Amino acid sequence: MKQKKTELIVIGSGPAGLAAGIKAKESGVNDVVIIERAERIGGLLHQCIHNGFGLHYFGKDLTGPEFIHYFIKKASDLKLEMNLNTMVTSLSHENEMQRVIAQNSQEGVIEFISKAIILSMGCRERTRGAIHIPGTRPAGIFTAGTAQRFINVEGFIVGKEILILGSGDIGMIMARRMTLEGAQVKAVVEILPYCGGLVRNEIQCLRDFGIPLLLNHTVVEIHGRNRIEGVTIAKVDKDFQPIPGTFQQIKCDTLLLSVGLIPENELSRMAGIELDPISGGPVVDESMQTNIDGIFACGNVVHVHDLVDNVCLESEIAGISAAKYVLEREKRIEIPSIKLIAGDNVRYVVPQKITKQKEVTLYLRVKKPDKNVILRVGDDVYEKKLFYVRPSEMIAVNFRLEHFMKLKNGTKELKVNVKNFTS
Question: Distance between CA 381 and CA 287 in Å, rounded?
Fold first, then answer.
């Protein structure tokens, strides 16, 4: 088995991995190795040909390929080592070093030894099997991301009469894309009582194209033998159970699924990294370090973002922190941390642990939509009024030094609440 020693390994070359690797190299780490299982770097942004990227990071409205081109060029200029078509099969922490086993068709099995690792494996789409839709198993059922690749990269139309289950951002974007390609999108069906994606996508992709959004509905059966011929949908009650008498059959030749994303953390589990049961990603501190010394995580592998701009900003923190760890390993000291707890109408908070050493941006999602709310961290540490909150739109809290000054000595945990102040 071939062995390679390096200072820092980045697993995944999407926007998170590239942003982290670039920042680590710029921060003084000379030997940065990026491992990517696909045939090209850049993640999925190559297939996201719609605009809406870069508004926060660049101050420009860019397409996905335009956005990722900046990071690919920067990584090339910095001469980051890329290992493409290389699959990581094992990750472990031994004797204060990180050990990665990977393999590819050119070199066979390779053992990488490094001082630090950044996990940036992204996330994957939830499939039909995960949501247990009854019926036959015909052709014509795709996740929205798979259909996006077929159309935007491979150049194949996946169907002519489309039904979309789930109102996630990819689903709504594909509703527009399919319409522009001449297909008929019958409806977007959403089991929740509210849209699951960004407001701008609901308006620009559905309302502007006259595509119906059926809330509190779901697919209860799939029809067809060789190719899907139609589906039965039904309205659901508050427990998400189909309501008798509301069943209706819709003819279609394609069903697209946009029913959520799952952080890709099989390697994290293998390494013994603590995972947050709500976000699905590693528990991290303000430097994006996991519970294992020297292993950092960033991007959608930590929690699913709605904007790639935030992915890159968060990943740059991981890159800078990993570089500091590599370059100053002997100087590190343990600092007591403060645990952040999700309170009223808060689903999760990232990072889950902070210290008083530096300013930090907290990212959180609410459990349900609400209006006229107060976001409060602790009793009187941080407070902000928000006109409207919804689960699909992440909230960012800039926790500054002035807020740390309000913390009492010995504070071990802070609760984050989002409460309605009109009731």
Answer: 21
Strand order in the sheet with 213-215: 141-143, 254-257, 161-165, 184-190, 213-215
Model's pTM, two decimal places? Answer: 0.94
- Residue 54 DSSP code: S
Hey, is 225 helix, strand or coil?
coil
Contacts of 248 (CB under 8 A, 6+ apart): 232, 233, 234
DSSP-derived pairing of the beta strands 360-366 and 123-125: unpaired
Same domain assignment for residues 140 and 286 = no
Q: Are residues 41 and 115 in the same domain?
A: yes
The answer to whether 364 touches 348, Cβ cutoff 8 Å, is: yes
Domain count, the chain: 3
CB 221 within 8 A of CB 231: yes
Q: What is the DSSP letter of 393?
A: S
Alpha-carbon separation of residue 381 from 284, 346, 399, 401, 408 (angstroms)? 21, 17, 9, 11, 10
Q: What is the pLDDT of residues 177-205, one digit of tens each?
A: 999 999 999 999 999 999 999 999 999 99
Q: CA 173, CA 256: separation in Å to the nearest integer?
A: 12
pLDDT tens track for 304-329: 999 999 999 999 999 999 999 999 87
Residues 282 and 390 in one domain: no
